[in-house]
Amino acid sequence: MEAAADPAPAPAGKRRRFTLRQEGPADPAVPSLFKPSAAPPEPPPVLPPPPPGPSSYAEYVVQQSAAPGAAEPLPAAPRPSPAPEPDGPPERGGPGAVPPLPVLKPGAKSSGIVVSPRQRGNPVLKFVRNVPWEFGDVVPDYVLGQSTCALFLSLRYHHLHPGYIHDRLRQLGRSYGLQLLLLQVDVKDPHQALKELAKVCILTDCTLLLAWSPEEAGRYLETYKAYEQKPPDLLKERVEQDFLSRMTDCLTSVKSVNKTDALSLLTAFGSLAAVVGASREDLSLCPGVGPQKAKRLFDVLHEPFLKVPK
């Protein structure tokens, strides 16, 4: 930069004026030798808007509890696209870092119930108190053992999103030996939906369990996990092996026949074969066995194993 030629001398007592002009319009800017003490903050990243509807049943329950009067069907939420993987390993211990969930493959051992993150906020988890549980990256909703898993479904949610359970069963496949569909009945007329879901469970080789409250559903999950390593004999009713106990257990399986009636019949006839061969009148003559019990017992003992179509 250079100054122009000096103008005529100004009278005394007045300042002189100088006109500055730039030599070239394309001169590069001179970089500053000093840095500001506080750098301006970077603009926050623009996040995509959240999906319009719930992505899991737990979010649906939370929205229903926040707005109990809402009765309009909720639109299905689009699945978010996976985020691009970083080039290097993720930094650990940074601010806001979330530890990854443990990944459990089918057949792996676990000391507690492994819960999928999609079940976060489900009221059923409040009633799982007797066995430990933790969140993990698993395909089913609940992993109850090495070969046992469960999917949770609410009939109310099924009415709003009928294709949800089909997608979940398709993702699950046949990864586990015992696959449960834990269904919470929370609608007034569930018969038609139960018939459809029963057919789905037969075709996909799933066991259908019905629960009428979150507490009952939680007890089912606890029982399956608690009896994971138990022998099947613990679930059976214990019956004594002596003759009288076995005959009493057989006769009391008939409706309205109690242990006293069974003891009276065995005392009068001596064996089960004699009871089967007795007539209806002979059965009614036993003490405590009237005509109605004798008729019901006679019909059960002489009913054919195979029903003939009419």
Backbone CA Rg = 39 Å
The largest sheet is: 6 strands, mixed
Strand order of the largest sheet: 4-3-5-6-7-8
Helix segment tally: 10
SSE string, helices as H and strands as E? EEHEEEEHHEHEHHHHHH
How many strand elements? 8
Shape: elongated
Roughly what fraction of the amino acids lie in strands?
5-15%
Helical proportion, percent range: 25-40%
Derived from helix and strand composition plus strand pairing, the structural class reads alpha/beta
Give an account of the 3D structure:
The longest helix has 14 residues. Helix 6 packs across helix 7. About 8% of the residues have low confidence. The termini are far apart. With 310 residues, the chain is an alpha/beta fold.
